[in-house]
Amino acid sequence: MRNYEIFTIGYEGRGVEEFISQLKHFHITRLIDVREIPLSRKKGFSKSALKERLEAEKIEYLHFKSLGSPSSIRNKLKTDGDYDYFFNAFSKYLSINMETIIEVHNYIASGTNCLMCYERLPNKCHRSIVVNKIKEYDGNGLKIKHI
User: In the β-sheet with 5-10, what is the strand arrangement from edge to edge?
Assistant: First the structure.
């Protein structure tokens, strides 16, 4: 059995050209947007513009709203900065929404996939919980690489 890998990336502090360059450097063929609301004040990172730009580079774009952090959990973090609570609550949320985790896992066999959110540091972003749930579901040594 082949060992699969999955990448994650945050666009915080990056322009769209640098972001695309990073994806191309790691041979990403599919970007999976895990923002609940795929809008950005940062030029080029809202869903439609990003999808169009990625398709021009032959990178597929998928958005999974259900893998975004629900506003109730996100807003509590903004208020109190309690990352332990945030990651625990989000992990519980994902545990009852496993169908999307399974759907994303099914993409791993084809192409080179990368989960995307805003935060540059994965340890400050819910995408680390998403990718760990995918790895847990996989059970076969899925490799995670943060870029």
Answer: 60-63, 30-33, 113-117, 5-10, 143-146
147 in Cβ contact with 28 (< 8 Å): no
pLDDT value, residue 1: 40
DSSP string covering 96-108, please? T-HHHHHHHHHHT
pTM for the model stands at 0.93
Quick check: helix, strand or coil at residue 7?
strand
Domains of the chain: 5-146 (3.90.190)
- Per-residue burial over 90-110, b if 16 or more Cβ lie within 10 Å, else e, is beebbeeeeebbeebbebbee
- Strand 143-146 and strand 30-33: the pairing is unpaired
The segments of the chain whose pLDDT lies below 70 read 1-3
